[in-house]
């Protein structure tokens, strides 16, 4: 069943992207109204706050965090509100990064394509958080291994996967594969609200890196 978009044209386009160039163009265009479009009552985009709560519950606040696919900074702002102050962000869209920069909550922001390798050394962060990018026509399950590469042993990957692609998109199989290879252990994999206004859920992953 198709994910409900509530008739939002940007969301409808987002779920049918053809690749990174198309994604960059969409999100540059959407950046000025993204927060208002998603956080209002119609969409009720609660995934950033739900995920920030999970980060603090798992890892505490005295951590260095990479917000992978940071967009306009909704996750960074939610983390900052909870006392997490060392947060870096990467995103494909310069327009979204400009909005994230304006929040004042990020230590560093850089452009990056999450479908490729991150230009970061191994074991750089205590936590990688990824909200809203493991979804239709965005970033596939291969990113999970790359995210864990830059997490220090004992740290966490906390991510949302849109519920209706959890199995069909290969994310569950990749989580199982990496857990079996002892790359990480699954602390919890729960169904959580994503866009509550449209009753769209996600799998909220809390994975502890070996």
Description:
This protein is of the alpha/beta class. It has one domain: Rossmann fold (3-Layer(aba) Sandwich), CATH 3.40.50.150. The protein has eight helices and seven strands. It has helices spanning 9-14, 20-30, 34-39, 47-59, 74-81, 94-103, 143-149, 171-180, and strands spanning 64-68, 86-91, 108-111, 125-134, 151-162, 184-195, 200-209. It has a seven-stranded mixed beta sheet with strand order 3-2-1-4-5-7-6, with helices on both faces. Strand 4, helix 7 and strand 5 (151-162) form a beta-alpha-beta unit.
Concise structural overview:
The protein is an alpha/beta fold and 210 residues long. It has helices at residues 9-14, 20-30, 34-39, 47-59, 74-81, 94-103, 143-149, 171-180; strands at 64-68, 86-91, 108-111, 125-134, 151-162, 184-195, 200-209.
CATH-defined topology: Rossmann fold
Helix content estimate: 25-40%
Total number of strands:
7
Low-pLDDT runs of 5+ residues are none
Distance between the termini: 36 Å
Class by helix and strand content?
A: alpha/beta
- Beta-strand portion reads 25-35%
DSSP summary: helix tally: 8
Major beta sheet, strand line-up: 3-2-1-4-5-7-6
Give the SSE map.
Elements: H1 9-14, H2 20-30, H3 34-39, H4 47-59, E1 64-68, H5 74-81, E2 86-91, H6 94-103, E3 108-111, E4 125-134, H7 143-149, E5 151-162, H8 171-180, E6 184-195, E7 200-209
Helix pairs in contact: 4-5
Pfam families: Methyltransf_11 (PF08241)
EC number: 2.1.-.-
Domain Methyltransferase type: 66-158
């Amino acid at each position: 069943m198709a994910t409900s978009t509530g008739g939002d044209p940007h969301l409808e386009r987002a779920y049918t992207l053809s690749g990174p160039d198309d994604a960059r163009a969409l999100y540059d265009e959407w950046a000025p109204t993204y927060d208002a479009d998603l956080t209002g009552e119609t969409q009720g985009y609660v995934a950033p706050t739900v995920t920030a709560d999970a980060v603090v519950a798992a890892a505490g606040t005295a951590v260095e965090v990479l917000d992978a696919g940071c967009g306009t900074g909704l996750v960074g702002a939610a983390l900052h509100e909870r006392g997490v102050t060392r947060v870096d962000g990467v995103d494909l869209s310069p327009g979204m990064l400009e909005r994230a920069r304006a929040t004042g909550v990020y230590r560093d922001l850089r452009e990056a394509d999450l479908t490729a390798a991150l230009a970061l050394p191994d074991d750089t962060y205590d936590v990688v958080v990824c909200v809203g990018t493991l979804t239709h026509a965005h970033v596939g399950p291969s990113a999970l291994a790359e995210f864990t590469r830059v997490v220090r042993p004992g740290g966490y990957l906390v991510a949302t996967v849109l519920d209706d692609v959890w199995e069909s998109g290969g994310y569950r199989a990749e989580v199982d594969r990496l857990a079996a290879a002892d790359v990480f252990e699954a602390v919890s994999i729960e169904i959580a609200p994503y866009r509550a206004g449209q009753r769209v859920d996600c799998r909220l992953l809390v994975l502890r890196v070996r």
